[in-house]
Specification:
By secondary structure, this protein is mainly α. Helices cover about 80% and strands about 0% of the residues. The longest helix has about 55 residues. The chain is elongated.
Length: about 270
């Protein structure tokens, strides 16, 4: 971890600490004034949630001069941590009563958890992408799979025609055809497992025992194609994961915001505040 990252994280912690200290001071004043701390933390938490949701719209409205997205992201991360602390202040560090309040609490914790997971992925996965060489367009990956499958199929047919042997064609039909149809071994690649590469290396070693010497260069070419496919699968898995976590985080954020607004209306309707 470089010095810049360390300084930035210390700055986050310092600002977060100052925010929490300020909140504690305000709550102490509120308590002395005989006012409701829960009411106070609830409104601040609602405002923080509004700011957190606004980050999504900042990314959509890039043409507006509202500051760089990376600064908004830093504010989003900082407010996410502050919002979590406010949440525990708001529920007074005890599990809320009532099914509706418990549902909101679960949604809130899921939202925070998905955000933390997304933050971890956005920090840990891009360096792995650089190890895989040129970054390919996610939307064009089906075309890349099709090209690799066609190259492997043409090679197997060509060798069969030249050497009058169907061993390589049978190997292609039995092992390669389905594998080359599209992405495979998603979670193994997410966890950076080397099992897939080792498994294919063993299969190609076994195949060589059934071929004549003139066919071996074709096996080397097939092995290169398969290893290229594995690298493609890794890119597909990493890029897919970086996209999929948002399918939980963003809809859940809006649903949570609506539920919290309903919670506020219920509180005001029945508490006489």
């Amino acid at each position: 971890m470089n010095l810049y990252v360390v300084r930035r994280r210390l700055a986050y912690l310092l600002v977060l600490g100052l925010l929490l200290a300020g909140t504690q001071l305000v709550l102490s004043y509120v308590s002395l004034a005989m006012a409701s701390q829960v009411y106070c933390t609830g409104w601040v938490l609602l405002a923080v949630m509004g700011l957190l949701v606004s980050y999504h719209w900042r990314k959509k409205l890039l043409f507006l001069n509202l500051g760089g997205v990376r600064y908004w992201l830093r504010l989003h991360v900082l407010l996410g941590g502050y919002g979590l602390a406010l949440f525990f202040f708001h529920i007074e560090f005890s599990w809320p009563k009532g099914l509706f309040n418990q549902l909101i609490a679960v949604m809130f914790l899921l939202e925070v958890g998905s955000g933390m997971m997304g933050l971890y992925l956005s920090r840990s996965m891009p360096p792995r992408m650089t190890w895989l060489g040129e970054r390919l367009l996610y939307e064009k990956m089906p075309e890349y799979y099709q090209q690799l499958r066609q190259q492997a199929e043409d090679l197997a047919i060509q060798v069969a025609a030249e050497h009058r042997s169907d061993t390589l064609v049978k190997f292609y039909n039995r092992n390669l055809q389905n594998f080359l149809q599209g992405a495979a071994n998603f979670w193994l690649h997410v966890f950076n497992s080397g099992q897939v590469r080792s498994r294919w290396a063993l299969k190609f070693e076994g195949l060589q025992r059934y071929l004549v010497e003139e066919e071996l260069p074709a096996v080397t070419e097939l092995r290169i194609l398969i290893f290229r496919k594995i690298e493609l699968d890794k890119q597909y898995a990493i890029q897919g994961l970086l996209r999929r976590w948002l399918f939980l985080h963003i809809p859940l954020a809006y649903a949570l915001f609506v539920f919290v607004l309903a919670h506020v209306m219920v509180i005001h309707s029945f508490s006489g505040v």
